[in-house]
Design a protein that fits this description.
The protein is of the alpha/beta class. The chain has helices at 5-17, 47-57, 76-79, 151-158, 174-179, 245-253, 269-272, 279-288, 312-323; strands at residues 84-89, 92-97, 100-104, 138-140, 166-170, 185-188, 193-196, 199-204, 224-229, 232-236, 258-262, 293-297, 331-332, 339-341. The chain has one domain (2-15, 72-340): 4-Layer Sandwich (Metallo-beta-lactamase, Chain A). Helix content is 21%, strand content 18%. A hairpin with a 2-residue loop joins β7 (193-196) and β8.
């Protein structure tokens, strides 16, 4: 618990100031106090009403004997296929492209919480332990919530052999990283880009919010990322509600080869809808982005985040795809730890020196009952 105190104090000090040092009146998503979403939406519903309903109805309901998910044994050689994508769990992905190892939303701790004894707990351990990761070159942090940004995880990454990665974060989070002694941080506003060893990293708007304490709501910026490389254009949503932002991304940056889109964390809808998509909306995001393929994230890892069964999202995703006339092959559901080679590329993106290979198109379906 004590190791989190500096970061908590940094969040509290920022909140006490109640002023946004990044405020730019010409940017509609900036406010004097923090940040807001691009498109009008309903205000936040009552958290305490939700908690009362959970208590009243005995939610979330859990299977007898607890959740059991198949985990693919990690093979370091498989995870280093170039390009490839490995689902470590929740919103943590390992993307390998152009010789770069890029990690998203690092969360390797037992709980998504500032406390070791309270808060949503893992039902599946990280498919690749921190100590077995390859050297990470870049870490993309979508926002400040505990299931997406974990202090112990980023500290371990900053201390990795061979030097720290570069952390890409939204405006306002650099001070939080500094409180942990981490300086290799790039703060970004929506639509800003940075270069990284042959890749271009864009920070793009999604509909969400931020907070790590009761006092710092929306004082740091949230968003998604597009990693643009000659071999692959990859979109990572982090966590989001449905909004026209995805059509805006496609209009400004173009369609993507692969999109990582949340499919879990959506119940009850009256409380979650504005900030968390359901599987049907995830399919619409896939279409809005013009994605060639998508991969499901933000499900099947942490218990007690929301009310739906952790087993439910993949089935609803398959039904949503069928309703739109889409194959399961275009929106993957990976097993924890599964690595998918990304060898099949659009013709105009095939490197001149490389032969075009066909990627496996077998859908990696999860059978939660096993």
């Amino acid at each position: 618990m004590l190791r989190f105190v500096p970061a908590l104090l940094a969040s509290c000090l920022a909140a006490c100031a109640m002023q946004n040092p990044y405020h730019d009146p010409s940017k509609p998503h900036h406010t004097p106090e923090g940040f807001r979403n691009n498109y009008p939406h309903e205000g936040r519903q009552s958290f305490w009403k939700w908690k009362w309903e959970q208590l009243r109805d005995g939610l979330p309901k859990k299977p007898d004997g607890g959740y059991r998910f198949e985990v693919v044994r990690h093979e370091s050689a498989a995870a280093l296929v170039n390009p490839s994508l490995t689902w470590i769990g929740h919103a943590t992905l390992l993307l390998r492209v152009g010789g770069l190892n890029i990690l998203t939303d690092p969360q390797f701790s037992p709980r998504a919480s500032p406390f070791s004894f309270l808060g949503p707990m893992r039902v599946v351990q990280p498919a690749i332990p921190l100590a077995e990761l390859p050297h990470i070159d870049a870490v993309l942090v979508s926002h400040s919530h505990y299931d997406h940004l974990d202090a112990a995880s980023v500290q371990a990454l900053a201390a990795q052999p061979g030097g720290p990665p570069r952390f890409y974060v939204g405006l306002g989070l650099k001070r939080w990283f500094a409180s942990l002694g981490i300086a290799n941080v790039e703060e970004m506003d929506w639509w800003e880009s940075r270069s990284l060893d042959g890749a271009r990293i864009h920070f793009v708007p999604v509909q969400h919010w931020s907070a790590r304490t009761p006092w710092d709501r929306n004082q740091t910026l949230w968003g998604g990322f597009v990693v643009e490389h000659p071999a692959l254009k990859f979109f990572f949503a982090g966590d989001t509600g449905y909004s026209p932002d995805f059509r805006d991304i496609a209009a400004r940056i173009g369609s993507v080869d692969l999109a990582a889109i949340p499919i879990g964390g959506y119940a009850p809808r009256w409380f979650m809808k504005v900030m968390h998509v359901d599987p049907e909306e995830a399919v619409q995001i896939h279409l809005d982005l013009g994605a060639r393929q998508s991969v499901a994230i933000h499900w099947g890892t942490f218990d007690d985040l929301t009310d739906e069964s952790l087993y439910e999202p993949p089935g609803r995703l398959r039904a949503a795809l069928a309703a739109r006339g889409l194959s399961n092959d275009v929106f993957w559901v990976l097993k924890h730890g599964e690595t998918r080679p990304l060898e099949s590329m659009p013709e105009h993106l095939v490197p001149a020196q490389g032969a075009r290979n066909s990627a496996s198109t077998n859908s990696a379906q999860v059978d939660p009952a096993r």
